[in-house]
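chain below, 150 aa
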Amino acid sequence: MAITEDARHRLYQRLEEVLGDEQATTLMEHLPPVGWADVATKRDLDHLQALTQADIERFRVETRAEFAAVRGEIAAGLAAVRGETAAGLAAVRGDMDTGFAALRGEMHTGFAELRTEIAHLGTEVHSLLRRQTMLMLSAVTLLGAVGMFR
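prediction:
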């Protein structure tokens, strides 16, 4: 049977009549504010403790699993970034190798053309010097024949 506030008040009034105000108040303060069925027993507290510990353990296991999943996702993300970075660097390295090979080819061709031009200029200078020397010798011979060098 549930005790109502009205029933508690009537009990207090009767105790006050029998025991007096102070003793009635003291006795009422020792009674639970609700019915005895609502008071927790040691068994109730032990059961509640077991349930709470089970909840805490379940939460701990779930939290560990979630953290492990997050760690796995982060590791996979980092691995993907590393892979993309390595692939990007390999592509850049390949592009640079191709560019340097093309530059080397152009330089080789340019230097070959320069060598050819220098060789041609050398031949031309040699030809011009030979002509000049022949002209000088002819001039000296002509002047000697004319008598200028006596």
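The longest helix spans residues 42-146. Residues 52 and 74 are 32 Å apart (CA to CA).
thats it, cya
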